[in-house]
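Interim report, section 4.2 (structural modelling).
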Amino acid sequence: MDIFLTILQGVPMTIGLTVAALGIGALGGIPLALCRRSTIPGISFIAVSLIEILRGIPPIVWLFIIYFGLGTALPMLDPLTSAIIGLGLISCAYMAEIYRGGLSAITRGQWEAGEALGMGRQSVLTFIIGPQVFRVSVPAAASYAIGLLKDSSVAYTIGVSEIVYFANDQSRQSSDALGPFFLAALVYVIMTIPCAWATRALDARLRQKVAR
Amino acid sequence: MNILNDWPSFLPGLLAGLGVSVQVALLSLLIGIPGGLLLAIGAGSKKKPVRTLIIGIVEIGRGTPALVVLQIFYFGLPASGLTLSSMGASVVALAATTAAYTSEILRGGLQAVPQGEVEAAGALGMSRRDTLRFIVIPQGFRVAIPSLIGFAILIFQATSLAYTVALPELLSQAYSIGSTTFNYLSVLVLAGLMYAAITVPASWLTCRAEKRLARHL
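Predicted structure of the assembly:
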């Protein structure tokens, strides 16, 4: 039981890291998704390359590049900051792809109706398309968030004191090497299953306000 | 930092590491995907206890981070008398994760096969097993191919987790070169590009596979 309580100490860090990275991704994904749709030649190519590179390199490698690679030149990068930046950057790429999917799910009629009312492209995007894209993107974003919650465990490798970090510590200290890891697994399963339920409920509510 | 001089000297070590990464990924997929298929068939079982059990296993497998599964097999199991090498533990752990995830992908594929075909097979007097073997699995598998390639890319990336169990794969090699030359940034960036050199073309392949398969639907 003591072991379980010690492992629980890592939960706020895991959740904080996930929320911070997801926040960066949710914001950073917007310009990236818009650039990807841009009709100006170079811009969409740059956006696509950025997304592919961010998603193509494993999260743990990004954390190492930032913490060990850049950290030698920038000593203010502590493990937590590096982990938030690394996972945040990766989230930008994934969220951009999710928004892109959302954008293409909005029917053309919405754009046309906005234009017919004399609205500019910019304001159609901000007031009509944007809010609907967010609603449509919720399920994909939520399953990404659940994945990110689990992926945040890689931050343990650069010394962020989250769930796996405590589990490792307990496994080395106590006579029971296996138990702490099972408890860590249990904590993750307990966190992800309610998230999945909550998402389904939220999605059903938000979808009522999307034009078909 | 002199990339032109550094990178060629890093390459042999990193390429050896890449070889190990690819090997772990391929072995995990080779063991994990058939496992996933068994779970997918089990999840469609008519017996409720079997179905509940399998879905429970899959949910737990998908809910646990691959890193934790890896640590259970490498650091945890020796305590109960079963010691795996770092290679063995990595392959078993990633294969278990693969089985859990691909079972959901394959279940989606199997469900995409029209019910009418199953009924038609029944009407022709085919047994349930033959229907599964000759009608449902070949078609369901084909539908699942793009998602399976996508998942294979993720598993290849996940082999970098084996760094934590001291397997000499790409990231471990890069890190150890970094710690001897103090050129962390340069060698880690090169390692990152080597991962991307495999994953980025593979994700194009997924897109093409999706388009190609969509033609027949």
